Backbone:
């Protein structure tokens, strides 16, 4: 903008002076403007044969390495089989009703990726890092959350805690600032990718992200989803956003479908992959302390 102001003032000054060749002045001014605006141009044009060659080389490399997962591994074999891992530039939505386990699922996905050498950035707009820390420690040690918070366990428990400090030493970064604007998420994502080589972004969750003012909530979330898709492509890494489902599928006691994504049909259009966590009504009646079977539904998978 400063360069644009400078070039504009220079042109105005020359126009007020003695102009011997108007055409030459117009051309010089136009060139200065083109040079200034060229800084805003992003991306590049690639010939179709070059694109085909990139695809050929990617397939050849997968064959040579014997690796069927060409993206960031999910940690779930059946999901890896369907997606070949989280793909660069993809926007992935993980949606469920409250208390089904979205955050726990996303946290385990993040930890698995970090253990495989893929640095992860985790925006936690709902839970504090202390809460996430207790969950991680509970999974690693097998000590229930009540005993951890008291604490009520013996020497063996402390040994497991010490071991967990080692296993949880992961290239994973957590930001628990609440009420972030979508512009904040974009700016902070660019920064941490640049500083720490992040290979996977996770946001928990979309509904707590503030969007443009003056829009309906439906359009607001749609605009945020579009911006996050652009960000994923720009950074060339997968971006997982957690989201909620409407009450409709719960009231009708059925599996969720894409139209159940809460507050915005535009989310479906922006997403490359949409996953649902779902518990049938009969399963919901099992006690909270039990291991509860949960279905993982792939509702959309653009790549396949």
Residues:
């Amino acid at each position: 903008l400063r360069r644009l102001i400078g070039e504009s003032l220079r042109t105005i000054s020359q126009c007020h002076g003695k102009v011997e060749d108007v055409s030459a002045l117009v051309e010089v001014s136009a060139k200065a403007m083109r040079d200034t605006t060229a800084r805003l141009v992003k991306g590049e044009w690639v010939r179709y044969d070059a694109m085909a060659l990139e695809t050929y080389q990617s397939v050849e490399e997968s064959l040579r390495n014997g690796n069927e997962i060409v993206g960031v591994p999910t940690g779930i074999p059946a999901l890896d089989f369907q997606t070949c891992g989280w793909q660069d530039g993809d926007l992935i939505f993980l949606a469920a009703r409250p208390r089904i386990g979205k955050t726990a699922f996303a946290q385990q996905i993040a930890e698995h990726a970090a253990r495989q050498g893929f640095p992860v950035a985790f925006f936690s707009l709902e839970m504090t890092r202390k809460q996430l820390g207790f969950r991680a420690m509970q999974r690693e040690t097998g000590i229930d959350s009540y005993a951890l918070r008291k604490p009520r366990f013996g020497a063996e428990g402390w040994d497991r805690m010490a071991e967990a400090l080692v296993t949880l030493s992961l290239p994973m970064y957590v930001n628990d600032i609440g009420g972030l604007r979508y512009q904040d998420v974009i700016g902070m994502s660019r920064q941490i990718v640049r500083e720490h080589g992040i290979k996977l972004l996770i946001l928990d969750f979309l509904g707590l992200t503030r969007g443009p003012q003056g829009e309906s909530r439906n359009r607001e979330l749609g605009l945020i989803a579009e911006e996050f898709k652009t960000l994923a492509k720009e950074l060339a890494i997968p971006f997982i956003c957690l989201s909620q489902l409407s009450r409709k599928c719960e009231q009708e006691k059925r599996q969720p479908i894409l139209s159940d994504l809460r507050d915005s049909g535009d989310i479906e259009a922006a997403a490359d992959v949409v996953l649902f966590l779902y518990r049938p009504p009969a399963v919901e009646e099992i006690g909270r302390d039990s291991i509860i079977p949960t279905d993982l539904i792939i509702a959309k998978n653009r790549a396949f």
User: Anything to note?
Assistant: The chain is about 50% helix and 15% strand. The mean pLDDT is 82. Residues 217-235 form the longest helix (19 residues).
